[in-house]
Amino acid sequence: MSDDDQILLIENDGAVRTLRLNRPDVLNALNDDLLAALGKAVREAEKDKTVRCLVITGAGRGFSAGQDLADVSGRYKSDAPIELGAHIRERYNPIISKIRTLEKPVIASVNGVAAGAGCSLALVCDLRIAAESASFIEAFINVGLVPDSGSTFMLPRLVGAARAMELAMTGRKVKADEALRIGLVNRVVPDADLVAETTKLAQQLAALPTRAIGLTKRAINAAWSNDLDTQLDYEAMLQTTAGQTRDHREGIAAFLEKRRPNFTGE
Ligand code: T3D
User: Can you give the pTM of this predicted structure?
Assistant: First the structure.
């Protein structure tokens, strides 16, 4: 099978693994095969100790247009009630949860439009670096649906409740410059620089103490639902774990010896 036939391209560059959604003709709309491949690849990245940063991006001019609507058109051929919840629970939610809890940095390199569940997928990643031509659309409302795959969770946390409500209710397109201004993305770069800038950021993160990054992610995620005292105690507990890593000892040794640290992710 040639690369062009693979629904998900998996590329390794040192400790950085890139997952490239590869259905460019339909802006990487998510059908069940692509969702299955993505879920498997994320689980594998979690287990593989050589992977210290994960990048998710799209082939062609889109990041992902969300659920492949043509793929599910059969549902609408009769008047029978449609049960979407099961599809979301089975196909989308495990991937979204896994990315959120993966104890490694996950970057969405948003190369084009991210719509519907494709937008949710970008939002659940830890960092978003967007090309100038990228855009974000909470497209669910345009097809009479509720934002899913974590959008109602991530969107207000990233941009605040009022903006989240507006974007979810209107389904309007947010271009990259606005996305940067409202905190939907971390960085915007010229289209031609997206790959290089993503690689630079991913390599930088992959060379950091991976365990401490994973624990930081745990702490910040937990902070949304903890009160201060609970969070203080949680930080102390996580710090005990971080303090027992090889990378912590290496960081201290490197500082005292006035040299660059060599973190191994252990
Ligand atoms: O079903 C469940 O389980 C529930 C789950 C729901 C989760 C969801 O994600 S619901 C939301 C689904 N997504 C959308 O509603 C977005 C639909 N797409 C669009 O609105 C537009 O395509 C975009 C705004 C994303 C991009 O517009 P544009 O003008 O740049 O491109 P285009 O011409 O519309 O699309 C290019 C091709 O991709 C086109 O095919 P063609 O005409 O060249 O053969 C188009 O049909 C196809 N495409 C785009 N999005 C989808 C799609 N094909 C299938 N499913 C799509 N979501």
Answer: 0.97
